[in-house]
What we know:
The chain has one helix and no strands. It is mainly alpha-helical. The model has no long low-confidence stretch (mean pLDDT 94).
Amino acid sequence: MADLWQSARSQIASYEHRTSELQLALATEKEALEAVLREVKQLEDDRSALDGRADAADAQAAEARQALAEKRAAADRAAKDTTVLNKHLELLQGSSRDAAQQLEADRKRYREHLSALRGQLAAFQAHLSATTAVA
Length: 135
């Protein structure tokens, strides 16, 4: 019976030793798992932060694209306005040339008419001089 007790105590001691080893292994595994969970949480936080920065970058890129589209539209309008203004300038230059030619033609006619009037005045003065000399 003493052997039975000795055997039982030996098995209990072996069981307690094995239980201690398993508890130690379990504690180690639990710590490792908690470390992995902390790392996963940190990675998720980092990913969340990156997602936030990506969203901000996307929003900024969208604003930049919108600003670019507005600037392109303004440039297109400016190009059309420039085309219209150039056409008006060409028309005004043509009108100015026509007006300058007309003015030169009017000056020429004025000079010719003035010469004719001076000639008539000279003839009238000669006629007056001749009439007053006869009288």
